[in-house]
Amino acid sequence: DVKVTQSSRYLVKRTGEKVFLECVQDMDHENMFWYRQDPGLGLRLIYFSYDVKMKEKGDIPEGYSVSREKKERFSLILESASTNQTSMYLCASSTEYGLADTDTQYFGPGTRLTVL
Amino acid sequence: LAKTTQPISMDSYEGQEVNITCSHNNIATNDYITWYQQFPSQGPRFIIQGYKTKVTNEVASLFIPADRKSSTLSLPRVSLSDTAVYYCLVAQARDTGRRALTFGSGTRLQVQP
Predict the structure, then answer these.
(1) pLDDT in tens, A81-90
(2) What are phi and psi for residue B61, nearest 5 degrees?
(3) Which of A18, A47, A94, B33 has its CA 20 to 30 A from that of B100?
(4) Whole-Å CA distances, A35 to A93, A94, B30, B49
(5) For residues A19 and A72, what is the distance between their CA atoms, to the nearest angstrom?
(6) Which CB contacts under 8 angstroms, 24+ apart, belong to B7-13?
(7) Which among A40, A103, A106 has the least Cβ separation from residue B94?
(8) Residue B52 in contact with residue B68, Cβ under 8 Å?
(9) For B13-28, how does the pLDDT look when each residue is reduced to its tens digit (9 = 90+)?
(10) Which of residues 36-55 of A touch B (CB under 8 A)?
(11) How many CB pairs under 8 A join A and B?
(12) pLDDT tens digits, A28-85
């Protein structure tokens, strides 16, 4: 079974703090993603990475950056947290070489971040 | 990317069949229809995918008409544990380059005893 783990289930930070959210997958997947989920808005893609040290902006990258130094680890960074970044953050991974016709994404349990 | 539209919520009772319809009017030739399920406090998980006609697995069936502008997820004999949010997505084929998925707001299914 694919396992995607996230460093924290719940996190509380103050406005202006630098926040790191860590994600690790154990299936040697090439692609990794960060989404945020808000009520009524579904999941929105922040950033994704298709290889080590490669990254691409998603639909809402403003206020975020990412780091992928190792294949199994993808970090989301909030340089200066703001209250409008209070949300559920979900990490996912997928492989280029799966059997399905499209990429199947495997999600972690999520980190609920509250910025005060 | 093709936009999807699905009901915000549905209610059902245990043992009933539930059908959730999704519309995707501007679906492209390379697009597949994919459904994910999300339980509270968990990330979404893949449940079924299809291109046309009917697909069935151990969890659900997916019906896709010839024009592919809509699809219906069918859950046979639901139980309380099927209470979740169901997302309809249009995902491009593996060789078209885009790797990310576009999730809408989903359908919140509540199963009552």
Answers:
(1) 999 999 999 9
(2) -120, 150
(3) A18
(4) 11, 14, 24, 21
(5) 20
(6) B7/B107, B8/B105, B8/B107, B8/B108, B9/B107, B9/B108, B9/B109, B9/B110, B10/B107, B10/B108, B10/B109, B10/B110, B11/B109, B11/B110, B11/B111, B11/B112, B12/B78, B12/B109, B12/B110, B12/B111, B12/B112, B13/B111, B13/B112, B13/B113
(7) A103
(8) yes
(9) 999 999 999 999 888 8
(10) 40-45, 48, 50
(11) 66
(12) 998 899 999 998 888 899 999 988 988 999 889 999 999 999 999 999 999 999 999 9
* Token reading at B105: 């707001």
Which chain A residue shows the shortest CA-CA distance from B90? A102
CB contact under 8 A, B93 and A103: no
Q: In which residue are the tokens 């809509």 written?
A: B70
Tokens read off for B70 = 């809509």
Q: Which residue has the tokens 């219906």?
A: B72
